[in-house]
Amino acid sequence: MPEQTDDGATKVVSGVAKLASSAIGGVALPGAVYAAAAAFGTASTGTAISTLSGAAAVSATTALVGFGSVATGGVVLGGLAVAGAWMCRKPGGKLGGKVLSAARRVQAEKA
Length: 111
What we know:
about 75% helix; 4 helices
């Protein structure tokens, strides 16, 4: 196995990997919560959210995530995006670690 050096290229690859994993985490966590709420939730009218479309579906799903308030739902989804990005950017994070190790492996193969 080639010796790993901490040169500029490795730092760039590491930074890009952290950025990519943060972006994935920032989208995946709130996206999963939103999708689950839309698929299994019901609007305040009793209608299944999965049968709604457009603004009605967005408002009902956001309100469900926000425990009845659309404004709170927006804050919750925004917080989940930040939390997901933070968890994946952390060096100990599973996703961030996997992306980073794959990037380092590619870098090592090129050397």
